[in-house]
């Protein structure tokens, strides 16, 4: 029953993320943006924490579930608007995956655990939330930092050091060691900046 629930839930997450109207190309293939992100999260979890259980496998794959339904552009383009957007996103993702897992047939304890991780509850004290944050940080460094930098060419070096430094502080010692050991591919153009943010 458990394996069947997992397979059904994973298929539903993929199906929902496949509805993303935003597209991204990877290795010559066109993807729905959040489906590609979900695949990258799952692949990184397997590399970073291959012992992770079904709850965390579903949590990382649902990290951005239906994210396009709450676009950043719907909120004020200032710090307060950003924080409000992130808070409402976390709740939306948590509620969405909780509803999906309930329909699949998972018990409440399992659903609450996944939803708490996806909702970014109790970072640094909840091991599940910390693991999800680690995987998200690793995925961002390997796949998304360079593109993010291209979109924000107006940021100076100090701004980038602050951005990368804040993300680094959210990650665990284990994730730091994973990066420093060379287990992820850092964008060559930004490697020097990343090292400054990490070591200064």
On the 0-100 scale, what is the average pLDDT? 92
What is the count of distinct domains?
A: 1
> Could you state the order of secondary-structure elements as H and E?
HEEHHHHHHHH
Q: Enumerate the spans where pLDDT stays under 50 for 5 or more consecutive residues.
A: none
Strand-residue proportion: under 5%
Helical amount: 55-70%
Q: Tell me the span between the first and last alpha carbons.
A: 50 Å
Specify the overall morphology.
globular
How does this structure look, described?
The longest helix is centred in the middle third of the chain and has 26 residues. Strand 1 and strand 2 form a beta hairpin. The mean pLDDT is 92. Helix 4 packs antiparallel against helix 5. The chain has a two-stranded antiparallel ribbon with strand order 1-2. The radius of gyration is 17 Å and the shape is globular. The protein has nine helices and two strands; from the N terminus they run αββαααααααα. The chain is mainly α.
Overview in brief:
With 200 residues, the chain is mainly alpha-helical. The protein has nine helices and two strands; from the N terminus they run αββαααααααα.
Main traits of this protein?
200 residues, mainly alpha, Hypothetical protein af1432, single chain, 66% helix, globular
Topology of this structure?
Blueprint: H1 2-17, E1 23-26, E2 29-32, H2 33-48, H3 54-61, H4 79-104, H5 108-118, H6 127-151, H7 157-170, H8 173-180, H9 191-199
Antiparallel strand pairs: 1-2
Helix pairs in contact: 1-2, 1-4, 2-3, 2-6, 3-5, 4-5, 5-6, 6-7, 7-9
